[in-house]
Amino acid sequence: MMLVWNSGSGWFLGEDLNSIVVGSPTPIAVSPLSSTVFERNTTQRVFYLATVGGAPHVIELRGTSGSGRTWTDLTTAAIGGALPALTNALSNYAFENTNTQHVFYIGQGSTSLHVIELWWQAGVWHTNDLTMTAS
Question: Lesser CB count within 10 Å: N end or C end of the chain?
Fold first, then answer.
């Protein structure tokens, strides 16, 4: 469910985003949420965890001015990304100067947990294992 603030009337209950974004996976019950507004391309994005094919995945719900709402399985779109740990946190930001979006989570590495970055530029999602990059 989305809560919306209007300076004239205060808080009100908005839309159930999963029910209006056709086909979007249902969030895991304890899924963290993270969101951002990307002014350059007039999008609002919400990130959460959902079970896809029996494993946790990072999901993006995206609303674009004039184009409606869509969703993307970022774990699949960013080829090579580690699966998120079930007890996870999400963080993200939009970097307007480079026209990029970044999502961070704790991923399941081969022998330990790793900090994973998913980043978007020019319509393509990429992955970066920050734990491996920093070592």
Answer: C
CA dist., res. 122 & res. 7, Å (int): 34
DSSP string, 45-78: EEEEEEEETTEEEEEEEEEETTTEEEEEEHHHHS
Please give the structure tokens belonging to residue 114.
Answer: 């790793």
Which amino acid makes up residue 31?
S
Q: Is 76 exposed, middle or buried (0-12, 13-18, 19+ CB in 10 A)?
A: middle
Q: Pick the closest to residue 33 from 43, 44, 41 (CA basis).
A: 44
What predicted TM-score, i.e. pTM, was given to this entire model? 0.83
For residue 25, the number of C-alpha atoms closer than 13 Å in the C-beta half-sphere is 22
Query: How many Å apart are CA 53 and CA 39, to the nearest integer?
Result: 33
**pLDDT tens digit string along 14-53?**
666 666 677 888 888 888 888 888 887 778 888 989 999 9
